[in-house]
Amino acid sequence: MRSVSLFFAVCGLLLASAGFARAQAIVLKDGSKVFSNEFSLEGEKIIRTIKIGEATAKSEIMRQNIDSLEWPYPAELTDSQDLLAKGKTEDAINVLKKGKDFFENFKDVEGNWYVDIYFAYIEALNAGGKFDDVIKLMPSARNLKLTDAQKMRLRIIQLDIDRQTSSDYLTIVAEAESILKETDDSAVGAALWNIIADVHVKKKEWEKALLAYLRIPVFYGTQMQRVPEAELQAALMLVKMGRFEDAGSFFTRLIASYPGSLIAERATKEKASIAGMKNEDPSKQTKDESKDGKKDEKSTAGAEKPKEAAEPAKTAVEPKK
Question: What residues form DSSP beta bridges with 33?
Fold first, then answer.
């Protein structure tokens, strides 16, 4: 019985020490540690609070006395990814902003997560359509010490800015396809296909946009932060193509999959706008015709070929073309 008690006591000590090892702490140059529950930020000052019995004493930790941070993977990164996967982009942005503001106080200290959170914050802003905020943050991002992977992410963010400010669509798509050939990173691939899809939308190429958006959940499903928006945009492309019943079913699934999110709210409104509408006969419209019956010049030129327009679903099984 005594050996059993000893065993549990040892296990308890091991667990406690493991938790201690993973604790968040500032490591000072004298080797001592100040744990996260012992300091706070007051403006630009790092204030340490020491409890002596029932009394407390405060002192400022000078930055020149800090050696490094002992900080596990930040909760802000984990929580924001989870929120983005649920379509709650605004909540994710708020979480990352708090993390960015905190780690900015330690951005020159070894072991900090400032760059990682900064990039995640910019990407979340971009996903949330906060274009002006992204542009304001880009100069600072370029001045950071970046890894090759982060330089690639910055390149993609810049390409996304170009996509929103330039009409040189051929160059933008060519650059995106060039980057796709350079990497097999799923995060990069998902971001690039989102850019390509948006370019097709600007060109009113609804079917091409649909297929590009669908690549994200189909081939890059691990990038859950991009899936909800890509699925919503795919459903909107079905509306543009006159496939109202198909779009309605898509919106219904989005509402069920992302409850309480802006994605679900937008899907609800879009579903209501096409309620009761039947799929249009594809032989009576071109593949790039919008739901309001307006056509671009390319679609009008091809209006005499209804057989080609009647096959929008065939290419959906050939995503690698």
Answer: 27
Beta carbons within 10 angstroms of residue 188's beta carbon: 20
Alpha helices in 220-317 (DSSP H): 227-240, 244-257, 262-273, 297-301, 306-309
Burial class (CB in 10 A: 0-12, 13-18, 19+), 165: exposed
Section 281-285 average pLDDT? 69
Count CB atoms within 10 A of the CB of residue 178.
10
Buried-state track 115-135, b at ≥16 Cβ within 10 A, e below 16: bbbbbbbbbbbbbbebeeebe
Domain boundaries of the chain, sorted by first residue: 23-70
pLDDT in tens, 141-173: 888 888 888 888 888 888 988 888 889 999 999
- Return the pLDDT at 284: 64
DSSP H or E run through 116: helix 114-127
Q: Which two tokens stand for residue 231?
A: 């699925």
List all residues 6 or more positions away from 194 whose beta carbon is below 8 Å from its beta carbon.
160, 212, 213, 216, 226, 229, 230
Written as six digits, the tokens of 115 are 């760059």
- Estimate to the nearest angstrom the gap between the alpha carbon of 117 and the chain centroid: 12
Q: Could you tell me which of 70, 91, 71, 72 has the C-alpha nearest to residue 80?
A: 91
Domain 23-70 indexed as CATH 2.30.30 = yes
